[in-house]
């Protein structure tokens, strides 16, 4: 039996094993495969990079486990950038599970030696959707009486000189889209359009990007990151490849492996294909 004949009869479990290895390697050790940075990602990056040290950022973690695979890397990449800019983070969430993702991602600030209540705070979940976002714009204290741990807001140092959205230097919503209590449209209507001097950046799932791109093109928002790829691009701009780059490398490795199997399978088929017998009269 020739090599190509054996190739056509290879055990499918071996193919799965090769796929597993191909995906696992870049996850364990990111390869940093070439990745062109899109203008939209660079625009969001530059907007954050323009913040002054100590800038105040309201960051809303509006997503649940269903969107975490795409949105958590965006949150992590942006928080890494905010940390470099020494920005103060006011974390909120219109989705109950979002408080958990805020806590997990803010560990980056904790590990960097930042002080809770002075450099960052997790105010937790707020109910009410659009009406709550509108009310928050005027008076954030009317929405949050305490933080996610139950500490009264009036006892948190970084809340003493903050009244509403006007006191923020940037607003970011990492948003799962439909199903979230405060969707991307809500943040555009109640914040981006109302407070012209406060830049708004949206982090969205890839499927929500086309619907919200007009907000960026019209200048209503200053940045839009849609899906895993922009998160990887953001990490590349930070020169700090992380989970997003690893996941993109794994995705690319899986595609390359599949294409390799398709190519080998077709070659083996045509090499071993019996020659057609031509009948002559």
What's the SSE blueprint?
Layout: H1 3-8, H2 12-28, H3 39-49, E1 56-62, H4 65-84, E2 88-93, H5 98-105, H6 107-111, E3 120-125, H7 129-138, E4 170-175, H8 184-192, E5 200-204, H9 209-217, E6 223-226, H10 228-237, H11 243-272
Parallel strand pairs: 1-2, 1-4, 2-3, 4-5, 5-6
Summarize the structure.
With 281 residues, the protein is of the alpha/beta class. It has 11 helices and 6 strands.
Mind explaining what this structure looks like?
The protein has 281 residues and is of the alpha/beta class. It has eleven helices and six strands. The chain has a six-stranded parallel sheet with strand order 3-2-1-4-5-6, with helices on both faces. Strand 5, helix 9 and strand 6 form a beta-alpha-beta unit. Helix 2 packs antiparallel against helix 11, helix 3 packs across helix 10 and helix 4 runs parallel beside helix 10. The radius of gyration is 24 Å and the shape is elongated. The model has no long low-confidence stretch (mean pLDDT 89).
Strand count, sense and barrel status of the largest sheet are: 6 strands, parallel
Using the CA coordinates, give the radius of gyration: 24 Å
Spatially, the strands of the biggest sheet line up as: 3-2-1-4-5-6
| SS content category | alpha/beta
Percent range of helical residues? 40-55%
What is the H/E string? HHHEHEHHEHEHEHEHH
Distance between the termini: 34 Å
Summed up, the helix count is 11
Mean pLDDT over all positions: 89
Name the beta content range.
Answer: 5-15%
Overall morphology: elongated
Low-confidence segments, ≥5 residues, pLDDT <50?
none
- DSSP, total strands: 6
